[in-house]
Amino acid sequence: MKGTVKVNDVIGRISKHIYGHFQEHLGRGIYDGIWVGKDSEIDHIDGIRTDVLKALQALHIPVLRWPGGCFADEYHWANGVGDLSERKPMVNTHWGGTVESNAFGTHEFMALCELLECEPYICGNVGSGSVQELADWVEYMTFPKGTPMSDWRIQNGKQEPWQLTYVGVGNESWGCGGNMTPEYYADLYKRYQTYVREFAGQRIYKIACGANSNDVNWTKVLMERAAQWMDGLSLHYYTVPGTWEKKGSATEFDEDEWFITLKKAYEMERLVEDHGEIMDRYDPDKRIGMIIDEWGTWYDPEPGTNPGFLYQQNTLRDALVAALHFHIFHRHCERIHMANIAQTVNVLQAMVLTKDEKMLLTPTYHVFHMFQVHQEEDALEVEFVSPPYERKGEKIPQVSVSASRSSGKMHISYCHLNPHEQTEISLAIEGIDEQTKVTGRVLTADRMNAHNTFDEPHSVQPKDFQQMTVKSGELTVELPPMSVVMITVDLA
Ligand code: AHR
Question: Where is each Alpha-L-arabinofuranosidase C-terminal domain found (predicted)?
């Protein structure tokens, strides 16, 4: 198979925010997964578990969305600040009906972001919260001093305001966030965002709640009525192999399910194009960012776990789903400003799973780690037609390729979906020859459902890769079956 990396044909800059994250108060995502509390015997920094923190620091997470998800629209931030013993608990109605202690609130979240050196993305409560409540939250976080909210923050131990970069106005307002029509939400969006004030030189990027997968009418109405007041418009799409009632197992699947999952992951490209086309009609200069602030696989919960906790294992299949999504986001990077995988720890397509004091890194984690080199690089056009991967009369491209470059390096990632055979792929690349230094990493396994467990945490992990050759103007790579490969070409 042959193709060309068009070294001078830049699609756009890959925003690092495409590698963003999302963590909701859901199941064991925050509590256990990130926050163990200041009295825990598990090693921690001010209540944040050290092993998870270190793992996430290595990913250089650019942005973290919080506190939900559906949870955001019943979260009342004021109950989550101040003395721990006085924080008011609440029922987490969406996720298992558990009692939320509010031990992890604004200060703890901001401390986490500081430790991760990432930007905070706060999702405001529109479904059951008031305009005043959101305005107060922004004032609490960002006003220097001398107002009731800023002085309350100072009294609670934070002298200087935080830098707040992203604010979302509601979550899934068409569903768990209030079951609204787009027309009604567009009006509410305009009203709520008005009072998201920018104090003391802060610049807040305001994100309107966007559509559920195929609902292009939602995008149309929002763009028609509220485009001038937004910086970003979101989109949610989950890769569910089966139906919402019977999604399929995270680990027990056959090749049919492998195929359908990857086919559904490719669907993201059509959605980005469909919603992007509508955004283009109202915003031809692409000022407004598409914010895919929930994406990833969603399977049946692991047997024996609380179904409301959305805890699922993560296999090589998830690694391929993640890599395919990044390739799609790169191809559309001139419109997509941010994407946030759902979710970071112990929930859905997680980076990290924990069990008491144990932690493991998932295959998805390894893709995020391998792919971080694409962040803030120029995405290049890749001209190539993949042979099909066929199953029961249906076809999807067997190989996906994405290339990016910075001043001294080019990174080419490959996603190979066929679980049975190797595929050789040669790419014409102007300027390389036998002397060019080329290195590689591969993530693969001998089974489609290979995954890491607490007893065997390193079964699936990246390894050095050498199955490539360079000759004048051409790079040839022998892709192992079901693999993700990252090649670095030294242009210096
Ligand atoms: O990520 C889990 C849930 O999926 C989120 O809370 C919600 O926004 C979406 O439906």
Answer: 293-483
One-letter amino acid of 179:
N
> Of residues 1 and 44, which shows the higher confidence score?
44
Report which of 253, 189, 260 is spatially closest to residue 218, judged by C-alpha positions.
189
Strand ranges in 267-312 using DSSP code E only, listed in sequence order: 289-297
Closest CA to ligand 1's atom 5: 69
Which entry of 24, 108, 139, 294 is annotated as an active-site residue?
A: 294
From 471, 464, 472, select the one nearest 444 (Cα to Cα): 464
Q: What is the pLDDT of residue 407?
A: 84
Q: How far is the CA of 467 from the centre of ligand 1 (A)?
A: 40
Question: Is residue 492 predicted with pLDDT exceeding 90?
Answer: no
Q: Which domains does the chain have, with CATH numbers?
A: 14-377 (3.20.20.80), 380-490 (2.60.40.1180)
pLDDT in tens, 417-445: 999 999 999 999 999 999 999 999 999 99
Q: What is the mean pLDDT of residues 16-41?
A: 98
3-state secondary structure (DSSP) of residue 12: strand
Active site residue 100: no
∠472-398-345 over CA atoms, to 5°? 105
Q: What is the pTM of this model?
A: 0.97
Residue 177 CA to ligand 1 centre (angstroms): 10
| 371 CA to centre of ligand 1 in angstroms | 25
Q: Is 86 labeled as catalytic in the residue annotation?
A: no
